[in-house]
Amino acid sequence: VNLTSKSGFLLMGFSDDHKLQVLHALLFLVIYLLALTGNLLIITIITLDHRLHSPMYYFLKHLSLLDLCFISVTVPQSIANSLMDNGYISLGQCILQVFFFIALASSEVAILTVMSYDRYVAICQPLQYETIMNPSACRRAVIAVWMAGALSGLMHTTVNFSIPLCGERVIHQFFCDVPQMLKLACSYEFMNEIAVAAFTTSTAFICLISIVLSYIRIFSMVLRIPSAEGRTKVFSTCLPHLFVVTFFLSAAGFEFLRPPSDSPSAVDLMFSIFYTVIPPTLNPVIYSLRNEAMKAALKKVLSKDEFSQRKMYFKAMFKL
């Protein structure tokens, strides 16, 4: 692609070989469909089953919605580029991709922090749980999560695309990745972006500390529970959340905090997959398979009786 007459960027994906590009597209398509199915299923189950209308599942529904949007920002574009054997992305598309990617990633960290606080209150302050995590407080928390993400995305996008670029507009990644784009910046012109990145990183670090402190208190409380069954029940809801947090933040932290290398490698691409593609695909599996209430709700939703009831309900709605 001739970029001299265009204002966009060239995304250097996984391979120059068209057959391998098609293979990558098919693999990404399968992963994307799995992520869509899993997250839509969780959103549907929690919405339909009244037994799951509690703060924990309310936040889980929003995590699934974030995951759904997060994987849709990068993967479909990458699939299209691979199938068309054309890595070009316009400036407008790249701006939107950076904004939504940063906004949704920041919101994901925020919702995971809120979820850890919810578990802390439920286990360590059970008598005050309904008062602290009342419906109004939960709604405000979710609004704050989405607004914080949007603000973070706006800050990064505004600063990132005000930086003058030098050299070829080639990004060695399958999406418009901020650390890779900073390599294109002219010398000493990206101090503002570093300041914004430092602010975002410190905010993410505060979130991580909050999560760690919540779990230290949770596990110290759990170990005092006399019954093994009680401990197992608590661990079954807390450990999946802890795994998701650790996996997402460690992979993203490695990618954003390490010094950028001039020669891109397969490791760069692998770590970007670890925090862009894997978490949204694994989250539904982790949360549904380890959770008895989710499994029971899934069986209920998929049962013939429930399905026929829903069918009759929708028929009655359309008649009205």
UniProtKB/TrEMBL annotation:
<dbReference type="GO" id="GO:0004930">
    <property type="term" value="F:G protein-coupled receptor activity"/>
</dbReference>
<keyword id="KW-0552">Olfaction</keyword>
<keyword id="KW-0812">Transmembrane</keyword>
<keyword id="KW-0716">Sensory transduction</keyword>
<feature type="transmembrane region" description="Helical">
    <location>
        <begin position="58"/>
        <end position="75"/>
    </location>
</feature>
<keyword id="KW-0297">G-protein coupled receptor</keyword>
<feature type="transmembrane region" description="Helical">
    <location>
        <begin position="269"/>
        <end position="289"/>
    </location>
</feature>
<feature type="domain" description="G-protein coupled receptors family 1 profile">
    <location>
        <begin position="38"/>
        <end position="287"/>
    </location>
</feature>
<feature type="transmembrane region" description="Helical">
    <location>
        <begin position="237"/>
        <end position="257"/>
    </location>
</feature>
<comment type="similarity">
    <text>Belongs to the G-protein coupled receptor 1 family.</text>
</comment>
<keyword id="KW-1133">Transmembrane helix</keyword>
<dbReference type="Pfam" id="PF13853">
    <property type="entry name" value="7tm_4"/>
</dbReference>
<dbReference type="InterPro" id="IPR000725">
    <property type="entry name" value="Olfact_rcpt"/>
</dbReference>
<dbReference type="InterPro" id="IPR050516">
    <property type="entry name" value="Olfactory_GPCR"/>
</dbReference>
<feature type="transmembrane region" description="Helical">
    <location>
        <begin position="194"/>
        <end position="216"/>
    </location>
</feature>
<keyword id="KW-0807">Transducer</keyword>
<feature type="transmembrane region" description="Helical">
    <location>
        <begin position="95"/>
        <end position="117"/>
    </location>
</feature>
<dbReference type="GO" id="GO:0004984">
    <property type="term" value="F:olfactory receptor activity"/>
</dbReference>
<feature type="transmembrane region" description="Helical">
    <location>
        <begin position="137"/>
        <end position="155"/>
    </location>
</feature>
<keyword id="KW-0675">Receptor</keyword>
<keyword id="KW-1003">Cell membrane</keyword>
<dbReference type="InterPro" id="IPR000276">
    <property type="entry name" value="GPCR_Rhodpsn"/>
</dbReference>
<protein>
    <recommendedName>
        <fullName>Olfactory receptor</fullName>
    </recommendedName>
</protein>
<dbReference type="InterPro" id="IPR017452">
    <property type="entry name" value="GPCR_Rhodpsn_7TM"/>
</dbReference>
<keyword id="KW-0472">Membrane</keyword>
<feature type="transmembrane region" description="Helical">
    <location>
        <begin position="20"/>
        <end position="46"/>
    </location>
</feature>
<comment type="function">
    <text>Odorant receptor.</text>
</comment>
<dbReference type="GO" id="GO:0005886">
    <property type="term" value="C:plasma membrane"/>
</dbReference>
